[in-house]
Amino acid sequence: RRTPKISEYRPLSGIKIMLDPGHMPTATGATGPLGTREMDANYAIAIAAKARLERAGATILMTRSDPLHEVPLVDRPKQAVERGADIFVSLHNNALPDGENPFGKPRGFSVFYYHPQSLELGRAVHEAYRGRIKLGDEGLRWGNLLVSRQSAMPAILVENAYMMFPDQEALLNDAAFREEIAKALVEGLEKFLRSARRKP
Fold this sequence. Notes:
Layout: E1 16-21, H1 38-55, E2 59-62, H2 75-82, E3 87-94, E4 108-113, H3 119-132, E5 136-142, H4 146-149, E6 155-162, H5 166-172, H6 175-198
Parallel strand pairs: 1-2, 1-3, 3-6, 4-5
Antiparallel strand pairs: 4-6
Helix pairs in contact: 1-6, 3-6
């Protein structure tokens, strides 16, 4: 896809961003010790991000436009292509497999990319999270994940926090924390777009 026209002063203006709240009722994702389902946490983050991104001028598309919407995994990047998205952001929250030490390293957020053209997007969003989200930084990482692998535009998958830790689960249920995530996404996306605008 070609780089869209990017405003110097309001870089998100007119940019179509596909937000993908991960999981759905038949695949709810992780469940926290307080009973929070990942699909619900992902959707709440997406709604907060949608409002703030729209205020910054972006046009927001949602793969899962209703909390109970069923959207097969392969249809998510397909939607982004069919609906003309310029950027794809999949929103998730993390868990650990059985047997892994939960205290072996700082646990918190991570940003995944697949294609080389998505690296700068991932880097910009990761840096914004480092500045705003007061959780462990698990880094910017390459990952062979379907939604980012099959996307035709710059695409990332963000793990915002860990469902399995009660303190992080409580944060995900706090509107103020979700607003900080939304702010980080706006800052990261604006930085990426400004950088893309400067490239010949």
